[in-house]
């Protein structure tokens, strides 16, 4: 089981790509390595690398390569996301896709081809580095479509299938030896209007990424210390695995964090410990990558309040109690994992149509309740699709 | 009368701010200086300098200062625009003003205060340079409001008054010895739904900037070689002057260019020569700044076709016939200007309400026809508001 953190640069947040400092990154990676992790997930910014549709700048790709080297020097592997895209409430979209140039991000042929060029260029820049772990198409790319976004780029499920084929293909073409995958926020699992579907998540690329955020209604509904709240990450792993076609396919808990808007400070460490403990018994779990390494500096404006305090390390570089707790929780999970994997799991049948679609999977939904009831009393069930 | 060009960097277009090369800028300025101009108008990119609302990066301001030095070494003064913002069909807006963070660009108090911080920072960076000529709030800032924009930021006329007060104030606070002004596209003059009004153009800041683009219907209506087409720039100078309260206030033809979508190649040089000749007799004309220095490289995608060929210098650095023609036309205009200014002008009364509002000023409108008829037969009239 891999254990890592999502790297949020301490100085300048992701705007550091505009003022890349190898010494800042080195210092941040020193702090991250001290947590005992084996990898970082990193996030180039799309409009910085590709400001014009046919201009892919070399300088930030060189900086990305330097980042991989600095990670390697500290024993860290690197997972790279390409299309950012969406980060902590901000949407970074190149000018050639907005306003007068607004076109189908997922559907316009020229846009899709050029976006694939970008993904391939990012992957290719990293491909020569032995510590490259994975290339993700982008962070929660499904944020840009569906009915929730204020300015969505429309896409059908078929559009998404074609788009993912192009993007996963580009990632593989650029970095043939790395894992290729895509990442979605949980509307994929919980919202029937979302054209990125469970089937996309469970079949595109080399493994399934899930992102667990209990501010999605879970913690509000059940409270910060409830079983449902600390089991949410594991639940996502189990429902995503149900949609796998390949029984050997793995799931990556690529983002999970402790949002203070729903977790009082006293609940943060227990939430971490219990979330990791619940995950520890999940079969085919590739790894856990915590969000995030560093707090967002209070000198930066306009983040939702909860985004400032998600770090394992504070904005001054000090490891927070959560950082130490996570290090210990992961060590314990690793030790307990072999025994947990030998425990028999109950089985739970999921008939998605019969249960009312994806809304039944969402916090408080009919299937959600059934799962949590089973998990609480008999251990986390293995979810099996009714028609499989 | 000042004569300059709008500087469109030959390599990377305005994306050069991400990869600033002093040697590239020096080479571009050498070519521009060879045209006999006395100034350049330059355009930092807002999201590059201020990627977070409370983060104003130093590096691009240092680059801007280097640009002023390189201009000074070639005898060029510099006019700097702050809020880009809108450039050649692309809108560059920071992520903190779009999507989930979309707020009133002209109305949200925090946004306005932070935008003023940016304008002041740009002005302040330039203030110590003796060749700083002017600070413009931004290029055609009224592009972002009114009814034409696909995603407008709403503003009332009163909002614009307050916003301009803040921005002109910020420019003056940053660079007390430079001219401070704002710039609009011609909807200000021609479109009654546009909250940036003639009165704003004619009273805010130290002089009035006008931008003349005959693809606005003028050349389509009258043809590439018609009097109306070559007189359009002068017309804008005269109608803007009508709204002046201060009789000594000057008008700056800050952008005028020869768009090939409405001008066949054979009409370009005559258009240049005649446009400058018509402008030459305009009283209180501060200067003419041609759009633009360099063609946009064909390696960059998605520009409207007309935007690629507006340069006086081609994408390989060769001065085009239009560049040589403009140099000669300006020399001739300077020589003829004293005599032209002594010629008596007919007077034309403009009662904007009676004539039907700003639409009457637009190409083909009632007042437009009256003006052009007078200008063609008796010389460019002095326009006087009915109630003044």
Which chain pair shows the most residues in contact?
A: A-B, 35 and 35 residues
What gap, in angstroms, lies between the N and C termini of chain A?
Answer: 28 Å
The poorly predicted ranges of chain A are none
Total number of domains of chain A: 1
Note the main sheet of chain A: 8 strands, parallel
Strand order of the largest sheet of chain A: 7-6-3-2-1-10-9-8
- The radius of gyration over CA of chain A amounts to 20 Å
Name the shape of chain A in a single word: globular
CATH superfamily of chain A: Glycosidases
CATH names the topology of chain A as TIM Barrel
Order of helices and strands of chain A: EHEHHEEEHEHEHHEHHEHEHEHHE
Written overview of the protein:
Chain A has helices at residues 22-33, 46-49, 59-73, 109-127, 157-174, 187-190, 198-203, 218-222, 227-242, 265-280, 321-341, 352-355, 366-378; strands at 2-6, 39-42, 77-83, 86-87, 90-91, 132-138, 179-181, 208-212, 251-256, 285-291, 347-350, 382-385. The model of chain A has no long low-confidence stretch (mean pLDDT 97). The first copy, chain A, has one domain (2-343): TIM Barrel, CATH 3.20.20.80. Chain A is built from 13 helices and 12 strands. Chain A has 388 residues and is α/β, with parallel strands linked by helices.
């Amino acid at each position: 089981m891999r254990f890592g953190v999502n790297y949020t640069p301490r100085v300048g947040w992701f705007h550091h790509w505009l003022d890349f400092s190898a010494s800042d990154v080195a210092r941040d990676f020193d702090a991250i390595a001290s947590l005992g992790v084996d990898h970082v997930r990193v996030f180039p910014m799309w409009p910085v690398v590709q400001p014009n549709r046919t201009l892919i700048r070399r300088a930030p790709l060189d900086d990305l390569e330097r980042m991989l080297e600095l990670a390697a020097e500290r024993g860290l592997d690197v997972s790279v996301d390409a299309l950012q895209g969406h980060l902590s409430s901000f949407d970074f979209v190149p000018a050639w896709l907005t306003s007068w140039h607004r076109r189908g991000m997922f559907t316009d042929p020229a846009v899709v081809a050029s976006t694939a060029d970008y993904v391939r260029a990012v992957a290719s820049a990293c491909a020569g580095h032995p510590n490259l772990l994975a290339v993700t198409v982008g962070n929660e790319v499904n944020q840009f479509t569906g009915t929730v976004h204020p300015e969505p780029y429309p896409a059908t499920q078929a559009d998404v299938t074609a788009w993912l084929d192009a993007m996963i293909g580009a990632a593989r073409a650029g970095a043939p030896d790395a894992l290729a995958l895509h990442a979605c926020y949980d509307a994929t699992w919980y919202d029937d209007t979302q054209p990125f579907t469970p089937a996309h998540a469970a079949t595109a690329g080399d493994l399934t990424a899930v992102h667990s955020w209990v501010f999605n209604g879970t913690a509000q509904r059940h409270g910060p210390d409830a079983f449902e709240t600390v089991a949410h990450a594991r639940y996502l792993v189990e429902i995503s695995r149900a949609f796998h076609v390949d029984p050997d396919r793995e799931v990556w808990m690529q983002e999970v964090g402790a949002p203070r808007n729903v977790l009082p400070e006293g609940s943060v460490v227990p939430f971490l410990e219990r979330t990791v403990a619940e995950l520890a018994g999940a079969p085919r779990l590739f790894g856990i990558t915590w969000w995030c390494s560093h707090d967002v500096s209070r000198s930066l404006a306009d983040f939702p309040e909860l985004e400032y305090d998600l770090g394992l390390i504070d904005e001054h570089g000090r490891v927070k109690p959560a950082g130490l707790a996570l290090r210990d929780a992961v060590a314990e999970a690793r030790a307990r994992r072999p025994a947990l994997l030998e425990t028999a799991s109950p089985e739970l049948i999921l008939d998605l149509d019969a249960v009312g679609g994806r809304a039944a999977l969402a916090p408080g939904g009919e299937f959600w309740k059934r799962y949590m009831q089973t998990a609480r009393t008999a251990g986390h069930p293995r979810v099996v699709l009714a028609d499989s």
